């Protein structure tokens, strides 16, 4: 019977199945010939000591034991062409996985996406990077696959529902992701590989009788007696259904405004805001791995850091080893940053959002906007940054030490942010309390990560789309909006997820609840 073992090995041993077998044989005092196969179940890096180790959880099959490598397959999806219809607004991970779950349960999803398909989005991403043109419906945030498609493809989640997490990861593998995502402690697909997986999911939805509509914006809800009956599209057409999953993502400000205008209950929600810091990847490797050169067997080092500064949490967010910074505005007249990495994480720079937790009280200057106060606070900073940097997609930038010393940087080197930077004293971008926390916080970061606090690091402002500034409430059991029957707020935009995996899980949860009612 195969046995499970947990142990630590060097990065070189972890990279070789033969050396791994040798280690297992030696550690457990058995002959190498007795080992048929070692399957790594989980792998993580332990860089707490000078000699970096790899934590391995493995299943070992011994000679004579049955071992067959079963491929991960998709469920048997039925054809739902003539089944009852459910509208899904948004083709991000929440919407797409809700659609797959509905099909599995015998219901027909109609997915409505304001943006373009994954291939069509590329032209608009080029336009914002090169020509500084923002398409309000097709950009890094809007379009097939949502914000995650061209924003790294990180699959790590703190969700405790491990069964659900494993199911999502296995579905992604069945749709073409590398099986390594089932093993790594912090799995990652990569922006270059995720689009094909998203396209394959869409093709499966259509093959099974579902419907996917692109470049189609929802502008109104059809509501009668506090029950939803469908949606109105920008061209005036209507689509009817008495179950609607609202999975529009954290940047769909027009949807938040529509809900507010129709007096459908929404709430201001705290979020985090700050800058995106870029270091040379080689410097981060030296800090994290305590070595001059990381070698051939270690990946580019990530980092995660949290500090309490003046009673506020300041922390790294969406850290991208070997990655680049991208322009993520969703409207003209604003600038927004985010980061992503290709699957190999082979760029020479590392970047991370460095953000400060906000409180609802911080939005008091925008109190007249009610539940939209946080959104207006967020938008005001993005617009101010746009103005200060020259009213293009260039972003305000400053060297890290200069920022902490309130000194304008006399020069900004070329960074990975393609539209370019403008030297700005970043204290002009943010409210005073936020600026002071970041100025002190970066110095505290430097005490924990020796070498992090340096003028080699360039701060880009702002990192403002960390999560939705609005929560769309729902019943804890039915997952329906408490006021509108048949409306299911879902995913990041509603405030119930934070990333690809948790959004996908939430999409499935909403689909399951709908099926309970309809079946």
What do these coordinates show?
The chain has 519 residues and is an alpha+beta fold. The chain folds into 3 domains: 3-62, Alpha-Beta Plaits (2-Layer Sandwich); 85-268 and 471-518, FAD/NAD(P)-binding domain (3-Layer(bba) Sandwich), CATH 3.50.50.60; 272-366 and 380-463, no CATH class. The protein is built from 13 helices and 22 strands. The protein has a 7-stranded mixed beta sheet with strand order 13-14-17-12-20-18-19. A 5-stranded parallel beta sheet has the order 6-5-4-10-22. A 3-stranded antiparallel beta sheet has the order 1-3-2. Strand 7 (218-224) and strand 8 form a beta hairpin. The longest helix is centred in the last third of the chain and has 19 residues, at 500-518. The mean pLDDT is 94. Keywords: FAD, Flavoprotein, Oxidoreductase. Residues 213-256 form the MnmG N-terminal domain.
Distance between the termini: 42 Å
How many domains? The number is: 3
Shape: globular
Q: Count of helical segments?
A: 13
Query: Would you identify the CATH architecture of the largest domain?
Result: 3-Layer(bba) Sandwich
Most strands sheet: 7 strands, mixed
Tell me the strand order in the biggest sheet: 13-14-17-12-20-18-19
CATH superfamily of the largest domain: FAD/NAD(P)-binding domain
* Rg on CA atoms, Å: 24 Å
Q: Write down how many β-strands occur, each being a DSSP E stretch of 2 or more residues.
A: 22
* Low-confidence runs of at least 5 consecutive residues: none
Q: Share of helix among residues? A: 25-40%
Q: Indicate the CATH class of the largest domain.
A: Alpha Beta
CATH topology (fold) name of the largest domain:
FAD/NAD(P)-binding domain
Strand content: 15-25%
Indicate the structural class: alpha+beta
């Amino acid at each position: 019977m195969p046995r499970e073992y947990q142990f630590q090995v060097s990065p070189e041993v972890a990279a070789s199945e033969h050396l791994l077998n040798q280690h297992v044989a030696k550690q457990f005092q058995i002959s190498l010939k007795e080992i048929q196969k070692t399957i790594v179940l989980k792998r993580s890096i332990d860089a707490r000591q000078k000699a970096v180790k790899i934590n391995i959880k493995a299943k070992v099959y011994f000679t004579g034991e049955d071992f067959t490598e079963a491929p991960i397959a998709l469920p048997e999806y039925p054809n739902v062409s003539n089944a009852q219809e459910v509208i899904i607004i948004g083709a991000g991970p929440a919407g797409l996985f809700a659609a797959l779950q509905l099909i599995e349960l015998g219901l027909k999803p109609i997915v409505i996406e304001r943006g373009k398909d994954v291939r069509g989005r590329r032209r608009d991403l080029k336009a914002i990077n090169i020509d500084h043109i923002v398409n309000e419906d097709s950009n890094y945030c809007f379009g097939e696959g949502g914000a995650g498609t061209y924003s790294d493809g990180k699959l790590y989640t703190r969700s405790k529902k491990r069964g659900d997490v494993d199911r999502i990861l296995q579905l992604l593998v069945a749709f073409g992701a590398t099986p390594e995502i089932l093993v790594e402690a912090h799995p990652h697909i990569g922006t270059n590989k995720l689009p094909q997986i998203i396209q394959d999911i869409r093709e499966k939805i259509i093959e099974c009788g579902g419907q996917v509509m692109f470049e189609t914006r929802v502008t109104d809800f059809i509501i009668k007696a506090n029950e939803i009956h469908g949606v109105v599209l920008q061209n005036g057409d209507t689509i009817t259904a008495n179950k609607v999953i609202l999975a529009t993502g954290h940047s769909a400000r027009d949807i938040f405004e529509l809900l507010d205008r129709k007096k459908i209950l929404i709430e201001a929600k705290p979020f985090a805001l700050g800058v995106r810091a870029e270091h040379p990847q080689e410097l981060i490797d030296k800090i994290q791995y305590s070595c001059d050169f990381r070698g051939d067997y270690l990946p580019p080092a990530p980092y995660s850091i949290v500090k309490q500064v003046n009673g506020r949490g300041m922390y790294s967010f969406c850290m991208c080893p070997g990655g680049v910074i991208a322009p993520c505005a969703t409207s003209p007249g604003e600038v927004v940053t985010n980061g992503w990495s290709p699957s190999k994480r082979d760029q020479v720079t590392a970047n991370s959002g460095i953000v400060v937790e906000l409180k609802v009280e911080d939005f008091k200057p925008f109190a007249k906007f009610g539940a939209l106060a946080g959104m207006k606070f967020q938008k005001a900073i993005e617009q101010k940054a746009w103005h200060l940097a020259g009213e293009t997609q260039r972003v305000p930038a400053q060297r890290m030490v200069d920022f902490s010393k309130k000194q304008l940087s006399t020069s900004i080197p070329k960074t990975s942010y393609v539209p370019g930077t403008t030297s700005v004293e970043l204290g002009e971008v943010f409210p005073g309390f936020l600026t002071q926390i970041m100025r002190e916080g970066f110095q505290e970061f430097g005490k924990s990560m020796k070498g992090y606090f340096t003028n080699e690091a360039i701060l880009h402002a702002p990192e403002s789309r960390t999560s939705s500034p609005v929560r769309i409430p729902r019943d804890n059991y039915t997952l329906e909006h408490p006021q509108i029957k048949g409306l299911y707020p879902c995913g990041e935009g509603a405030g119930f997820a934070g990333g690809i995996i948790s959004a996908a899980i939430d999409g499935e949860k909403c689909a399951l609840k709908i099926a309970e009612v309809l079946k």
